[in-house]
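hey so u asked for the seq, here:
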Amino acid sequence: TYQNTIKNLHILDYEYYFKVTDYLQSEDMSNALLLFDEVIRNGFDGHNFLNGLQEHFRNLLVSKNKETVNLMEVSESVKQRYLTQSAALSGSYLLTGLNLMNQFDLNYKISRNQRLHIELCLMKLSQLNNAVRLAEMGSGDGAKKKSSHGELKPPAPPAEKKPEKVEGKPKPSEEITPADTQKSEAEPVEQKPAPATPKISPIVAAASSQPKETPSIFRKKPAEKEVKVEKTPEAPKETNAFDEAALQQVWLAYKKESEEKGVSDTEMLVLNRTVTKTGEHDVLIQLASSLEISILERQEQGIVQYFRKHLKNSLIQLQKAVSEQEKSKKLYTSKEKYDYMVEQNPALKDLKERLGLDFEF
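ran it, structure tokens below
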């Protein structure tokens, strides 16, 4: 039967995904977690369950459109169940659920508690309807607020001010009588001294009249006076002649001092190379490979200074040379091995011909 087949093949049935989707859509978190626990107790992997639920949501989204129903590779009976269940779910719910499960799928491998990781995903999916509903309500309220505040009333025209009438005739209280004029002529008027203006010195005035200059970063600085530094006379160069024996004696002394200082093994490998005198002031060191050149460059200056000091010749220069080593040819075939043995011992060829032997076997 069908149940025995999926049990023997250890395959999760469609029924689990239809049930858990119904629980999530009805916000039944408890039954969704219990169903997931049943899946785990039956020996299925939580990651496979999450991938199957993603595929289920994808089929539900595909079945919402008649043109894409044929993209599902299921039987007709299962297809009808998809059509029935998708009718109760909105497209935004399915898309948001797919996006959420994709994020949990990406982070599944790095999660320390993978079961809790899947359970948290189911908890969020069970509350997804509320989130979608709130998002739709928020977008609707925003559109209403925009439409209500979108119309702007034209501003009211400013009220015109009426000009005040100015009467040319003075008020009776302000009329001047001849007696008043006589009093004003008789009474002397006290003149108040004008305030003394502060005197500004010509230097301050000239300074204040000139505009202040703002500092500029592009203005050239005044040329600084050159400070002459007296050069100390150089020490006279030593050019004492030295022979091969003196060179070897100094080289051995330098190696001994370096070994006492505790230099690395690679540096001691270079110091064990031979040095020879090739010119009046030239010293040649023979190296085995180009790798040793880079090792020698770390202590080259110290070697040259040591030679110049102890051989009393400040013109000594260190030359480097890499000796070419003959590469041994590797023998692969039987004929190559036979020819090599014949070169070492020609009598082997006579032995082969007398006994009728062959190197191919």
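Confidence is low (pLDDT under 50) at residues 150-154, 165-189, 200-209. Residues 128-150 form the longest helix (23 residues).
lmk if thats what u needed
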